[in-house]
Write a structure and sequence with these properties.
By secondary structure, this protein is mainly alpha-helical. The chain contains three helices and no strands. It has a domain of about 60 residues.
């Protein structure tokens, strides 16, 4: 009789522990599935963050290019006022132009000077964008 009671109690305990283990196993599976889902969500968010950072960087580069282009070409947006400050001419430059006898030499000098300044600004802009 004692042995039968001991066997029944042992079986009842084993049954209760197996139910508890089964519940814990289900909870474990649910939690592992949730962890996988959260990891996927995290990777998606990180990808979106990288895309947003790239767009922000591209936007900054476009803004810098726009400003440089507007400065080089003297363009303006509607409602803006543009004030251009021209450098003063040195007396040595003026005398050099005055001594020139060819009518074509002055436009060539100013034309070459203009493009050399634009090319210098362009190279400076490229250097800034590389940084």
């Amino acid at each position: 009789m004692k042995k039968l009671l001991l066997i029944i109690i042992s079986l009842a305990l084993i049954f209760l522990f197996s139910l508890r283990i089964r519940e814990d196993l289900q909870t474990y599976r649910l939690l592992t599935d949730e962890v996988k889902s959260l990891e996927q969500t995290k990777s998606n968010i990180e990808q979106e963050k990288e895309k947003a950072e790239q767009l922000l960087e591209k936007e900054k580069q476009e803004e810098v290019l726009e400003q440089a282009t507007r400065l080089m070409l003297g363009l303006k947006k509607s409602g803006e006022e543009v004030i251009m400050v021209l450098p003063t001419k040195d007396s040595s430059d003026v005398s050099g132009y005055q001594n020139s006898t060819s009518s074509n030499s002055f436009p060539e000098k100013s034309f070459n000077s203009f493009f050399s300044k634009i090319s210098q600004i362009w190279y400076n802009l490229i250097e800034k964008l590389k940084k």
